[in-house]
Write a structure and sequence with these properties.
Shape: globular
Largest sheet: none
Number of helices: 11
Helix content: 55-70%
Radius of gyration: 19 Å
Structural class: mainly alpha
Distance between the termini: 34 Å
Number of strands: 0
Order of helices and strands: HHHHHHHHHHH
Length: 290
């Protein structure tokens, strides 16, 4: 079991490190991604190990890989749940309540565990998948109300798709996350310069939300630049909420009536808006949201 992560700074460093592993994965370097994720056993890196094993299992349909994916994702889910309980005892020192990043990581692990169960192609696996997705949907719906109590209107989204570039590569999301981590620990103007990610068009937006408190280096009513943890909270919540709403909105009308009876609601316009907000950040979720 991974040791307890004592403070936000440690969590941010681990998140930035895990982001580098996903950058390898997005560059189609699975072997390097697996090696990087295996260096640590915190929930972030265990989730990365689970994602790698899940991708291999989905492509090869090998039972051994499914077992490994389940093992890693289960450990990540349990570790995130443990950190959630520890964070509840902490005093808030940021604009988001302590522990929200772990709730998002927990929900991500639950979704992937459900999909891994579905790979077994058994009735029990499908039932476990449905149960897991129902649980994750409830988690993301609750997170949406917590993170976006006033809706998404205050959040800007990518303005459009840039002209295709002939350059062979762009700075990674790891570089963007590292830059955000440094900016978050120093005073800076309220509107930070946009940073580049693996997909540059995902990182062209900034955030300005009304507030009643002031912070060092910023005028009252404005927040300092978001760090990697804040990006995870915003992008992860918006992505999970938006994805579930979009999927439900695309189901046939008869199926929509059935899932609506079970408590699932959907709003396609809001779903697309949420995914656009997620795509405007520099977190791993932003890549999938785009």
């Amino acid at each position: 079991m991974a040791p307890e992560i004592s403070n936000e700074a440690t969590s941010a460093k681990l998140l930035v490190s895990a982001t580098r592993g996903f950058d390898y994965l997005f560059s189609n370097d699975l072997a390097r991604a697996k090696a990087h994720f295996s260096e640590k056993d915190d929930p972030y890196h265990l989730l990365g190990q689970g994602v790698c094993a899940f991708m291999e299992a989905a492509l090869g349909m090998e039972s051994g890989l499914m077992v490994e994916a389940t093992r890693c994702l289960t450990l990540s889910e349990a570790g995130a749940r443990k950190q959630m309980k520890s964070a509840n005892k902490a005093h808030p020192n940021q604009r988001f309540a302590p522990g929200l990043e772990w709730e998002i990581l927990n929900a991500d692990a639950v979704v992937l565990l459900g999909l891994t169960n579905a790979l077994s192609e058994s009735y029990m696996g499908y039932l476990q998948c449905m149960y897991a997705l129902n649980s994750a949907h409830s988690k993301f719906s609750k997170l949406y109300k917590t993170v976006f109590p006033n809706g998404l209107d205050a959040y800007t989204t990518p303005s459009g798709t840039p002209t295709p570039s002939r350059k062979s590569s762009t700075p990674s999301i790891y570089s963007a996350a590292s830059s955000n981590a440094e900016l978050a620990t120093t005073s800076a103007p309220a509107t930070p310069p946009p940073s580049k990610s693996l997909f540059a068009r995902f990182t062209s937006s900034t955030l300005s939300v009304p507030s009643t408190r002031s912070t060092n280096g910023t005028a009252e009513g404005e927040f300092p630049p978001d760090g990697p943890v804040e990006d995870l909270i915003i992008a992860g919540t918006a992505f999970g909420f938006g994805l579930f709403n979009l999927v439900f909105s695309l189901l046939p009308k008869k199926v929509q009536s059935l899932v609506g009876f079970l408590g699932f609601k959907h709003d396609r316009k809001l779903a697309l808006r949420a995914l656009a907000v997620s795509a405007g950040k520099t977190d791993v979720h932003s890549v999938f949201a785009g």
